[in-house]
Amino acid sequence: MKLLKLTVFTVALISLISCGKSGSTSLTGWTEKDKTLGGFSTPKKFKDQRTPPGMVLVEGGTFTMGHVQDDVMFDWNTTPKKQQVRSFYMDEAEVTNQEYIFYLEWTERVFPPHNENYKHIYHATLPDTLVWRDRLGFNESLTETYLRHPAYSNYPVVGVSWVQATEYCKWRGDRVNEKILMDKGILKNLFVLDSLRIEGRDHFVTDTYLLNPRYMFDGDSSIYKKGLPSKKVRKRGESRPRRGQFSGRHVKTSDGIFLPKFRLPTESEWEFAAKALSENRSYNEIRGRKKFPWNGRYTRNKDRKYRGDQLANFKLGKGDYSGVAGWSNDGADITIAVKSYPPNAHGLYDMAGNVAEWVADVYRPIIDTEANDFNYYRGNVFSKPKINREGRVVIADYTTIDYDTLDNGRIIPADRPGNIIFVPITKRDAFMRNNYEKSYNVDFRDGDMASTRHFEREDEDFEVSPRMYNHPVIPKILGEGGMRRQIYDGKMRRTLVSNKTRVYKGGSWKDREYWLDPAQRRYLPQYSATSFIGFRCAMDRLGPMTSSKRNAFPKNKK
Predict the structure, then answer these.
(1) DSSP letters for 284-347
(2) DSSP letters for 258-280
(3) Least confident of 1-10, 81-90, 490-499, 529-538
(4) What's the DSSP call for residue 171?
(5) 124 within 8 A of 87, measured Cβ to Cβ
(6) Whole-angstrom Cα distance, residue 249 to residue 231?
């Protein structure tokens, strides 16, 4: 009897131990070995998301968005609202002239402007250097030198519109993932091959590669080296790959090798990162407010060595951008090299001063009280890959490129050649969904049909959508009964607040101290560019909020 009990206990113990081993069992009974022999996916050894080059991790959390201490403008567009922000990565500093010039040189080589098909692509990426001109100022030399002269190479790039900044983020993601494949020996170094000219279709696009690697480089598979190891068993009689021929398999999303997309930070992310409230944390509470990215009510440094110096680059007063000669308060009259001032608690530089920065959001004067309190963002347009009649995903053509003309006259490509073409989802795609009903949600609850007096009608019921800003005129009395006819004026009104108006945050070298508060917000059309707005990129954090080993719930001690 004792022997039987000992045998049962041993079998149970072995079963528990085997269940604890990763990959040794599954919910279907198939082991990792069984799936390998069958050619199915097996668990990947993914440790942690790598930190993108030039970025730092901003651990997410809750904070009060808005909540400014001063509202001298009385525009009430910073309504306090508690928000939860997910963890994300963000550039340490603004994108510099040097980094942007690399983007320009790459674009000029891949899409040479002398080619009739590509002539507008390169020009669409060029910053507007004329933003330095002033009708009553002498800044002409800056229009010629600020972007390309090495004296300004480490200065933040300006003259870039929201549209251009968004395109740069997309391009940067492709270059980073391309470099990852090169470093792993999967993709050859494209710029040193004598047999390949990097132009037109011969360039790397992450989404296109994940869809089908043969859609790039004219289907030339020799551009790829040895792929990832494939555990698929070779069948009897199947020949081995020739020497130098691509073997193994291409990278998939499930491998965890590629980094997520680069993008502009949302307004809530930018404000959360700039405030850096974590340095005011006491256990799980925030003590006090922060008016600036640093602690304190003032903009001057308190350290003995640098006492009295400004902590940011901003306009000190009327006609005072830097201070007295020989004793410059902030070290600059216009912009200054990035990382010239101490970082905030997240390790982010210049979150106040130097240049203001574009964020992803469409502007509305008041943040809706019913707005999502989790990762708030206004500007969603849900899309899907375009499918042709043959059932294949459509890739933007290299010979017939569609262009759009912005309101300021600049011509930009609708889709860059080689990229997957995305189209808005249809109502059929959103049928019976409870989280969204249509593709275009930029004006959701603030400008769409549901937010007008025609809230019970559909957009399709009108040839021209009703305007929100038309108001009743003096009504006329009809007949003896005193009935009044409801008449709305037909006057066309103009406003900068539209579905193409984007938010920019933070103060700049041209702004007074008031705008250094991270909660302050301003707006411009997404095609506009100025001498005081730059940008930086962000990226989603995948998996746990942080790589820290801190335990949320300590183990009970026995």
Answers:
(1) TEE-S--SSSSSSSSSB--SSTTTT-BSS----BTTBSSEETTEESSS-SS---TT-S---TTS
(2) S---EEPPPHHHHHHHHH-GGGG
(3) 1-10
(4) H
(5) no
(6) 10
Question: Residue 175 in contact with residue 110, Cβ under 8 Å?
Answer: no
pLDDT of residue 338: 97
Question: Residue 317 is which amino acid?
Answer: G
Nearest-angstrom CA–CA distance, 72 and 514 = 9
**What residues form DSSP beta bridges with 328?**
323
**Which of 33-37, 453-457, 486-490 is predicted with the least confidence, judged by mean pLDDT?**
486-490
Tell me what pLDDT residue 21 has. Answer: 47
Tokens representing 2?
A: 């004792």
**CA distance linking residue 50 with residue 514, whole number of Å:** 37
Nearest to 312 by CA among 348, 349, 278, 346: 349
pLDDT tens profile 342-389: 999 999 999 999 999 999 999 988 766 667 899 999 999 999 999 999
Alpha-carbon span 130 to 124, nearest angstrom: 15
Q: ∠ CA 329-92-104 to the nearest 5 degrees?
A: 100
List, for residues 411-423, the tens digit of each pLDDT value: 999 999 889 999 9
- Per DSSP, 49 falls in state P
Instruction: Assess contact for 166 and 362: CB atoms under 8 A.
Output: no
In angstroms, rounded to a whole number, what is the distance separating the alpha carbons of residues 255 and 227?
12
What dihedral do alpha carbons 383, 389, 392, 396 form, nearest 10°?
-60
Phi, psi at 143, each rounded to 5°: -65, -25
pLDDT tens per residue across span 123-181 = 999 999 999 999 999 999 999 999 999 999 999 999 999 999 999 999 999 999 999 99
Domain ranges of the chain: 53-167+261-377+502-543, 185-231+244-256, 380-441, 448-498
Q: Do residues 555 and 530 touch, judged by C-beta distance below 8 A?
A: no
Fold of 53-167+261-377+502-543: paralog of FGE (formylglycine-generating enzyme) (3.90.1580)
CA distances from 384 to 233, 305, 439 (A): 36, 56, 10
Sign of CA dihedral 322, 326, 329, 334: positive
Write out pLDDT tens, residues 174-213.
Answer: 999 999 999 998 988 877 776 566 777 778 999 999 999 9
269, 364 Cβ separation under 8 angstroms: no
What angle, 0 to 180 degrees and rounded to 10, lies between the N-to-C axes of helices 162-183 and 97-110? Answer: 80
Locus of tokens 């059309």: 525
Calculate the CA 225 to chain-centre distance.
31
Q: 222, 230, 224: which is closest to 186 by C-alpha?
A: 224
Place of tokens 């006819």: 485
Strand pairing report for 61-65 and 81-85:
antiparallel
Output the pTM of the full model.
0.88
Both ends of the chain: CA-CA distance in Å?
A: 33
Mean pLDDT of the chain: 84
The two structure tokens encoding residue 182: 């090169």
How far apart are the C-alpha atoms of 513 and 106, rounded to whole Å? 38
Other C-beta atoms lying within 10 Å of the C-beta of residue 280: 15
